[in-house]
């Protein structure tokens, strides 16, 4: 029904743009393994009908990740792959075209620090927020098929006047991080994934320190101020903060499969989500 709808086409365009960013960000490492196992619970079989009766689905998305999920405070407009995915899910759920969607999809801004809490508390029905699928997360939430794959990357300070300058710490790769302070997003999997990669990588003997921040903007400001030596987050997120004063290093590791998340009892919603993801 929606194969050729404007809703579907806009999602396809957003996906293509996001994929291009990932492609040109650096060489793609070995494809990672997804985690999809969810702890069995009693599923609410009538959940879709309840949402239709309510007439609206509330979706948690990021506000600060250009090309994936971004809110422009000046224009009041949302944009990005996950935003288009949310609208497309609304089209499929309520059986309407994009032009007739109205307020049936309500977008709510979430951060890496509060997205899980908002889902637990029922503040949102569905989370589409650069959420990496892992075994631990699948024990608490029901996760969809993957709709995007990114990799952890590193960002450092950069002096444009000197093409060889990578900030005062002269960090050129992951191998230079011994004793350095790495900024990561709070409640993310980055620290665990990074240390696991270091432990298994051949001839990589480094022991970085970590500092966690509640938002990507806070990470960026900490880097510029010099409170941290490097930012380590998904490249898809780093792309939105890259400017003349920073540099994204070529390292790519620990593939991150993004999936939608719902409460386990509301897993019927993933039937709709996965249908949209699958095209």
Radius of gyration: 19 Å
Largest sheet properties: 6 strands, mixed
- The percentage helix is 25-40%
Mean pLDDT equals: 87
The geometry reads as: globular
| Strand segment count | 12
Distance between the termini: 11 Å
What is the H/E string? HHEEEEHEHEHEEHEHEHEEH
Give your account of this protein's structure.
β3 and β4 form a beta hairpin. It is globular and about 55 Å long. With 279 residues, the chain is of the alpha/beta class. The protein has helices at residues 6-24, 47-54, 81-94, 115-120, 135-140, 190-200, 216-225, 235-238, 269-278; strands at 57-61, 64-65, 69-72, 77-79, 105-109, 126-128, 142-157, 181-185, 209-213, 230-234, 246-248, 253-262.
Q: What attributes does this structure have?
A:
279 residues; alpha/beta
How do the strands and helices of this protein lay out in sequence?
Elements: H1 6-24, H2 47-54, E1 57-61, E2 64-65, E3 69-72, E4 77-79, H3 81-94, E5 105-109, H4 115-120, E6 126-128, H5 135-140, E7 142-157, E8 181-185, H6 190-200, E9 209-213, H7 216-225, E10 230-234, H8 235-238, E11 246-248, E12 253-262, H9 269-278
Parallel strand pairs: 1-5, 1-6, 8-9, 8-10
Antiparallel strand pairs: 2-3, 3-4, 7-10, 7-11, 7-12
């Amino acid at each position: 029904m929606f194969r050729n709808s404007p809703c579907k086409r806009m999602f396809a365009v957003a996906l293509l743009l996001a994929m291009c960013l990932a492609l040109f960000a650096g060489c793609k490492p070995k494809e990672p393994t997804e985690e999809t196992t969810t702890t069995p619970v009693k599923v609410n079989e009538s959940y879709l009908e309840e949402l239709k009766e309510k007439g609206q689905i509330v979706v948690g998305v990021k506000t600060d990740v250009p090309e994936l999920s971004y809110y422009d405070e000046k224009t009041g407009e949302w944009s990005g792959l996950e935003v288009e995915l949310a609208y497309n899910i609304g089209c499929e759920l309520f059986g309407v075209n994009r032009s007739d969607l109205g307020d049936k999809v309500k977008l709510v801004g979430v951060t890496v620090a509060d997205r899980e809490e908002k889902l637990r508390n029922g503040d949102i029905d569905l989370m589409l927020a650069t959420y990496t699928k892992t075994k631990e997360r699948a024990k608490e939430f029901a996760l969809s098929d993957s709709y995007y794959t990114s990799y952890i990357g590193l960002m450092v300070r950069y002096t444009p006047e000197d093409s060889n300058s990578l900030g005062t710490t002269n960090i050129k790769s992951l191998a230079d991080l011994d004793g350095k302070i790495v900024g990561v997003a709070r409640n993310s999997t980055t620290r665990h994934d990074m240390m696991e990669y270091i432990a298994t990588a051949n001839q990589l003997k480094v022991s970085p320190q970590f500092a966690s921040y509640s938002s990507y903007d806070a990470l960026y400001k900490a880097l510029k101020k010099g409170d941290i030596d490097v930012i380590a987050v998904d490249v898809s997120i780093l792309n939105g903060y890259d400017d003349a004063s920073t540099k994204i290093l070529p390292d790519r590791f620990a593939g991150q499969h993004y999936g939608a998340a719902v409460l386990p009892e509301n897993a019927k919603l993933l039937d709709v989500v996965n249908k949209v993801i699958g095209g």
